[in-house]
Amino acid sequence: xxxxxxxxxxxxxxxxxxxxxxxxxxxxxxxxxxxxxxxxxxxxxxxxxxxxxxxxxxxxxxxxxxxxxxxxxxxxxxxxxxxxx
Length: 85
Prior knowledge:
Elements (H helix, E strand, L loop, with lengths): L2 E7 L2 E6 L2 H13 L3 E7 L7 E7 L4 H24 L1
Antiparallel strand pairs: 1-2, 2-4, 3-4
Helix pairs in contact: 1-2
């Protein structure tokens, strides 16, 4: 998986992600994260990577992404624990 940061500011980031599943999971969790005003991805063509854009207020984009990733890991661990039963 490759992630390329195209534009990064304190409250705004734009990145290319070559994995649509990761882009969609991040979008879904970031949209539930407080302080995130806008998150969306788009792909110009099936052969090109997704472009993920995130805007936040009240916290940095990096902090919002960290919170979303922590939530993804926790939910994944819960699913794995349920599958092991």
